[in-house]
Amino acid sequence: MCGIVAYIGPREAYPILMKGLRRLEYRGYDSAGLCLLNSDLKVFKCKGKVSDLEDHVKDSDISGNIGMAHTRWATHGEPNQINAHPHFSQNKSLAIIHNGIIENYAALRSELMNRGYAFTSDTDTEVLIHLIEDIKINEKVSLQEAVRIALNQVIGAYAIVVISKSSPDKIIAARKGSPLVVGIGKNEFFVASDATPIIEYTDNVVFLNDEEIAIIRRNDELKILTVKNQEKTPYIQKLELSLSAIEKGGYDHFMLKEIFEQPRSIHDSMRGRLHLEQGLVTLGGIRDYEQKLLNAKRIIITACGTSWHAGLVGEYLIEDLARIPVEVEYSSEFRYRNPIITEEDVVIAISQSGETADTLAAIELAKGKGATVLGICNVVGSSIARATHAGVFTHAGPEIGVASTKAFTAQVAVLTLLALLLAQKKGTLPTSHFRRLLVELSTIPDKVEQTLKLNDKVKEIADIYMNATNALYLGRGYNFPVALEGALKLKEISYIHAEGYPAAEMKHGPIALIDEQMPVCVIATRRGTYEKVISNIQEVKARKGKIIAIINEGDETVKNLADHSIEIPETEEILVPLIATIPLQLLSYHIAVMRNCNVDQPRNLAKSVTVE
Fold first, then answer.
1. What is the mean pLDDT of the chain?
2. 517-543 pLDDT, tens per residue?
3. Per residue in 209-255, pLDDT tens?
4. Which CATH superfamily is domain 3-245 in?
5. Roughly what angle, to the nearest 10 degrees, separates helices 576-594 and 431-452?
6. Which of 194-208, 344-358, 376-390, 416-430 has the highest mean pLDDT?
7. How many CB atoms lie within 10 A of CB 165?
8. CATH classification number, 453-601, choose in 3.40.50.300, 3.40.50.10490, 3.40.640.10, 3.10.450.50
């Protein structure tokens, strides 16, 4: 959600900024802009894509070796050229780009208007740059001091970069609640909202912490201060990221690449953690908190979107295998409904990016009430990884497509390992059953590989239903969260209205929607409530609905009932979500492509949701 990239050094800034913006397109945005400093501050911005910005600056002077650029996902004010970033201060001596939301912007704006400041945009960001200018002029302080004082007056989240016409060898960057990373090269620096624009130039980075300000000077060492004016020693880390991992690798879309990466990403999420020969599971990141988990009166899983669906699978897994009560909460609701949380609770926060604003707020709420908070996320150095007491990285690799695919299955794989670990420690599973599950879990990457070979068949089904206006997804037990996730994928990237339901609940309302135009996707694998699901399929057929069934290989019963069947390898009931979700991802992908939708950057969506 919104993207930041900035550069200072000996090279021309424009090519680096534009390449950085293209790397950040996956985050979701509706306008783009850049600022270059070359004796004067020059700002170019427009509504639309990065390619529109490139067209916009043609025939303009784009020289300069200091600059910053931004992709905006609209919050305050509609998507247009005026509201796009960067924003000037009133005397145009300062410029700013900003991710996040300044919550008290209205009060600050009113005060600044009383002081004679005029606003050209509807954004909260313009308020901040006017405030910085006002402090700099009236208190006669340096740029970094003006930024520091201003940030003590704002309430909300921010990742900002500020450039001054009068300081041509300096960039100021700061963050609170929105990620920002500084890349350190040879006599040059890079700033970005994540590491993807930086990896091409350096693998030495500093992840800024909340309320930290980076003072970046040409040909000098990086300096970090807090908003309380305490100096910090920069902690330089090596990036564990390759350039090839953030490129399409011959696939038409990142989403398709990431769907096909799942045999590897699931394997990587279990590597070094699943030990078949010893018959055990280890999760080193939470080793010090195992006893806390085992003694927990309750586990609360909090997440948003796809991660929430993974959390639902986690609830089934932990309660089924380890017999510990689990509640799954939407982070955005959890943080505002005054939940009952005690010191005996363990809260597990799940997020692909590790930057989800609502989940971060839920973490702080839980910590404030004394709960132990563990994280499951994909990005090393992310805010959630640092805010939680401990946690487990999914190691899925960079996920660029906005619609999450491999992150979901990696999260489910980690939750499966966690449930098995707890079950083994608590003795809630017979040893023979535990070992059987371990062996079967180790085969899942190969079975996902087999399932991906159904791509052409799924594409044929997609061609039939590409013009559907509504779809229903049904599952029971472990497959209910899979139905929810399948429906979400279709909504996200094809813009077809879809709903996921527990199959038995269909007759309590959604059955009224079913007619001969309605495709109904049913996860009908043999394990669990198989006979009940067959009854639900017959209820749909009686209303002339079109059945797309996810079944096990060789299942003739459901195959004869369904209009279309997709046969996946058989596995243990608890592991079905890791396989059954694959054809639903492919179905959504192919339908979206056939409808000419922007698969990797669906409208109105953002990859990393860093605002409420």
1. 91
2. 889 999 999 877 888 888 888 888 888
3. 899 999 999 989 999 999 999 999 999 988 776 666 667 778 899 99
4. Aminohydrolase, N-terminal nucleophile (Ntn) domain (3.60.20.10)
5. 20
6. 416-430
7. 16
8. 3.40.50.10490
Q: Would you call 607 a catalytic residue per the annotation?
A: yes
Region 267-274: mean pLDDT is: 95
Catalytic residue (choose from 49, 176, 447, 607): 607
Is 520 in contact with 483 (CB distance < 8 Å)? no
The H helix count followed by the E strand count for the chain is 19, 27
Tell me the residue type at 446: D
Choosing from 2, 46, 377, 597, the catalytic residue is: 2
What's the distance, Cα to Cα, between the start and end of the chain in Å? Answer: 11
pLDDT tens-digit profile of 64-117? 999 999 998 777 778 788 899 999 999 999 999 998 888 898 999 999 999 999
Q: 249-452 and 453-601 share one CATH topology?
A: yes
Whether 257 is a known active-site residue: answer no
Say whether domain 249-452 belongs to CATH 3.10.20.740.
no
Domain boundaries, the chain: 3-245, 249-452, 453-601
List CB contacts of 314: < 8 A, sequence separation 6 or more.
Answer: 301, 326, 328, 348, 350, 412, 415, 418, 419
Q: Which residues pair with 392 in a beta bridge?
A: 376
Which residues have CB under 8 Å from 12's CB, separation 6+? 63, 64, 65
Q: What are the C-alpha distances in Å from 34 to residues 5, 14, 95, 515, 581?
A: 9, 9, 10, 51, 40
* 603 — pLDDT class (breaks 50, 70, 90): confident
